[in-house]
Amino acid sequence: MAPAPTPCLHQNIPHLPQQNPAAKFQKTRSRAVKGRSQQQRVTAVAEVNHVIQDTPAQTRRLVEANVPAGTPIVPPQDLPSRPRRNRRSVSFRNAVAENFLHPAHLILPVFVHDGEQNIPIASMPGVSRLGWRHGLIDSVAEARSYGVNQVVIFPKTPDHLKTRTAEEAFNPAGLAQRSIRLLKDTFPDLEVYTDVALDPYNSDGHDGIVRDDGVILNDETVEFLCRQAVSQARAGADVVSPSDMMDGRIGAIRRALDREGFTHVSIMAYTAKYASAFYGPFRDALASAPAAADGSSKRIIPPNKKTYQQDPANYREALRELRADEAEGADIVMVKPGMPYLDIIRLLRDNTTLPVSAYHVSGEYAMLKAAALQGWLNEEEAVLESLLSMRRAGADIILTYFASDAAKWMAGDRSPFIGGTKSGL
Ligand SMILES: NCc1[nH]cc(CCC(=O)O)c1CC(=O)O
C-alpha cells in the first residue's frame, strides 16, 4: 500500500534529498541554537520529519529569524512569482495601487425641508432633513472644507403641496428651486446637481403620473420632467439628474434645456436604476413611498416601481438603457444602487466613453451605519473600502451620504487619497 501523503509541501521537490536523516539534522541545529525553546522547536521539526538542506546559510537564518517556537523549518519554495513582494510596504503598495479615491470623486446628497431645524432621519443615523436656509448651507460648507464640492438636492415636499400631477416640481419658487438659488449665491463654484422625477411632489408617490387603472404614464410625465428640469436650470442648477426611468426623457430634457438657452447645463442620467429594496430609508426621508391605495376608490396605485425601474435580475438590459441615454445626449451615466450592482458599473464602464457614476444609496448607508453603531464593523475602513470598490468597478463619480465623513477620513493619515493607507507596515 502506498504511504499516506504527507502534509509537507516540500516532500516532492526533486532536488531536495528525500531521506535527510533526522539525527544529523537535529545535531547540527542543536549546536547552532541557544536556549531551550529553540532546541525544542528544532526537535519538533525533526520529529515531523520535515526535509531541509543543511547549509550554513540556513543554520544562520534559523538563529537570526525571530520566528515563534514551533514554526516549521522548511526550504524555500521554488516560486518565480511571489505576488507578496509587491505588497511588502506602504510606499510600495501605494506605488502600485491600481485605483484610488479622492474627495473630488464624491457627490453629497442632501435632504432639505422648508423649515429651520435639522430633523434627524431615523433610518439614516447621522443624516438629517436640513433646514434649507441654514442647515443646508452649514452642511455644504463642511463638505467643501474637506474637498467635496458637489451636491445633489432632494427636497421634502409638505403633503398639502402634493398633487396627482405633481406641478410643484416646476414651481419657480418651490423648495428645490429656492435651495439651488441659495446654494449658488452662497458658493458660486459649487457644482449643484438636482433630481428630476415627480415622486417627492406626487400624492401617489410615483415618479410619473398614475392613471386610474394604475398605469404610469410615460410621455405625459416626460413633458412635466422637461418643465421641472428647465425650472431647475433657471434656478442655477449645473447638472440635472433624471431618476424617473421614463423612456425618452433624456433626449426630451436635452431639447427642452437647449431650447431655453441652457446648452451648458449637463444631464446625469440615472441610466441603470433598479427597482431596489435599498431605497427604503430615502423614501422615509422624503415621505415619498408609493401611496397606499385608498380602499374607497376604484383607483389602482402600484405598490412598487417595477414597471419603470429595472428588474434586479437583469444585466443586458442596462446596455440597452445605456445606448438610449448616450444617443439622447446624457453627459454622465449612472448605476444605482452601487455595491450590489458592481457588475453593472463595470458593464457601463466597458461600453461607454462617458463618465460613469454610482449611487451608494440610502439602504447601503443604513446597513453600514447600523453595523458600525453596533460595533460590528470598523466604520471608517468599511466605508472607504466600499467606495473604493465602486471606483475599482469603474465608477468615476460616487454619490454617497458618507461623502463628508469619507473626505474627512481621507484628510487624516490617508491623505491625499486612499488606495493604500499611510499607517501600518
Ligand atoms: N426618483 C426618486 C429617487 N431618487 C433617488 C432615490 C433613492 C436614493 C437613495 O435611496 O439613496 C429615489 C427613490 C426611488 O426611486 O424610489
Automatic annotation (TrEMBL):
Enzymatic class: lyase
One MF term in the entry's GO annotations: porphobilinogen synthase activity
GO terms (BP aspect): chlorophyll biosynthetic process; heme biosynthetic process
Catalytic activity reported: 2 5-aminolevulinate = porphobilinogen + 2 H2O + H(+)
InterPro entries, A to Z: ALAD (IPR001731), ALAD_AS (IPR030656), Aldolase_TIM (IPR013785)
Gene3D superfamilies per record: Aldolase class I
Pathway listed: Porphyrin-containing compound metabolism; protoporphyrin-IX biosynthesis; coproporphyrinogen-III from 5-aminolevulinate: step 1/4
Family per similarity comment: Belongs to the ALAD family.
Name of this chain's protein: Delta-aminolevulinic acid dehydratase
